[in-house]
Amino acid sequence: MRQSPRREAFSRTILREKNKLAEISVLHILFALRNRHLLALDLLVYCITPVIALALRTEAFQSVPQSA
Fold it and tell me: How many domains does the structure of the chain reveal?
């Protein structure tokens, strides 16, 4: 069964975009990052690290004493 010309064009466009996304590798993404992106990533890691350390050190968050 043959598809309509509009649907074929749409399918070709989708495949073309999919191929473009496949060409993007991790290195391309890393080289595209700017200093502000790396700063934001560092801040995120620095904020999350204490929470992860506390979770690994205690059995549950309920065992952590609550401070006023």
Answer: 1
